[in-house]
Design brief:
Helix 7 runs parallel beside helix 11. With about 600 residues, the protein is an alpha/beta fold. The protein has a ten-stranded mixed beta sheet, with helices on both faces. The protein is built from 17 helices and 16 strands.
Amino acid sequence: MKRKLISTTALLLLVQVAICQTSSNPPEKKRPNIVVILADDMGYSDMGMFGSEIKTPNLDALASNGVRFTNFYTHASCSPTRSMLLSGHDTHINGLGNMDEWTAPNQMGKEGYEGHLSTSLVTLPQLMKDAGYHTYMVGKWHLGKAPDKIPAARGFERDFSLLDGMGSYWDMTNMTALNHTSVFTEDGKYLTKLPKNYYATETYTDKMISFIDEGRKDGKPFFAYVSHQAPHDPYHLPKDWRNRHVGEYDKGWDMVRQERMKKQKELGIIPTETQLAERMWFVPDYNILAPATRALIGKKMELYAGLVENLDHHIGRLIQHLKDIGEYENTIFIVFGDNGAEGTDLGAMIGGTPGTRDYLYFASKWSNNHPNAWGEPNSYVGYGAGWAQVSMTPFSQYKGYMAEGGIRNALVVSGPMNKLPNGSINHGTVFVADIMPTLLEVAGANYPENFNNKAQPKLMGKSWLPVLNGQAASPRTDKDYIAWEVFGNRAVRQGDWKIRWEIKPFGKSDWELFNLAQDPAERNDLAAQNPDKLREMLVLWDKYVKENNVILPNRTVFENMEDQLPQRFPVQEGYPPIINIRQFMPPKDMMAEPKEIKKN
């Protein structure tokens, strides 16, 4: 009896100890979910919280509940940006030294120019998966099509992906005669057809919601890569989204740019002394266009605005679902566009010369082009250079180029890793390659020295956590630098200074120097005035070339632009006077009817 009492007492003591241990060591908090939302060709000023008149309430809500970064850099084109996001390495290291579609003859077969995300590098989803995260992807991949290069082979356990760089939003129609059908995968299998009632933006959202729901049972956090096709051209969208801005853009690109810049200054996105970049010299003054032409060109921007609003709507559906299932408060959101807005007529570029194979293919597959049919399957419309500059307000140029309009984009970060006040604006210099080290730190994952028996290069990015914790204004010092090269266009930024080299006529085919703190619109080339600073920056460029095996292309997508475009002259309002001088109106009190001539 006594022995049994002792045993009971000992058991009670053990229970009490266990209770004390439990109370002093509460269960480990679940790691945050991560949602990276990537918009395709969405411009710097296209979200409401970055100055736009386009209605983006869901994206604006994320910005209001998080922080906006105004000095965020991507690359100048889509697959290079995506490669840095998922690898953490420079494009010339990770296989996208040039876009696969435009690889130059002297780059073919060279290391770093494979045209797909290098299989020798570990990816962000692979490391997130190893760290205990579910990994999901929907949308545009554009990083390789072979079985060992698709999302399922690079770390995503669930996917519904468009492997091509662009195509129809309605079906599998692709862009060229030799690549006439877009290639899709789902969970590592190539699709023979698309789901019933497929529409890209909606279907991608539906699939991501289903992945999240089906993976919830084990309680693991998830990493979701939502890589939307929108708002890349062609501008395909449902009928009820096409006419929400009728007549709104007939005022023209210059007026809308002025209005956006005014709002950006009021919001604190740009300094109050910022000037608007010069309108592209080959883009006409909207005021000289005939009314019918203005309405037709304005309709293109109406469609683009509808496409952005539809994108925001479906992003809102995903956000609401996370709220409904109780995951929103524990989810980090990172939202941005993959490069500058698209100002080049890709349809004309791909179709090429009348009578050629691709021209005939394009005419047969993309010929539903009466303005009343824009947005329908087999229609093709993009909005052109004038509206692309609107999307990139206040900056110069657009996608493909190394001006700020090609490589700077809006970034929104919200969720548990942000400790800054809601609605904050940060002006520190941040880079797309920073996302991998930031998210690895959030997930508690380590970047390996070796992966699959292959040595891994050092990550080039810097974690944002010190900034988001309020411990630093920027992840970079004035000594750190970022560099870019694609299509032969190149740039380096260090501190407030930037050099760029662009092929004529967009650049000088020579180095230009800008102080971005004083001149974010890059209106004033300071190279001649500051030769010492230019030489200092060129040392960084040479270092970048050497460390990243940069091979400048001997052929480029822009090689014939100088012959195709008008000769470049400065754009100044009101010049030439001959077409800008309005009708002279005499004072009313000096008006008179003609006197009759008296004949003999």
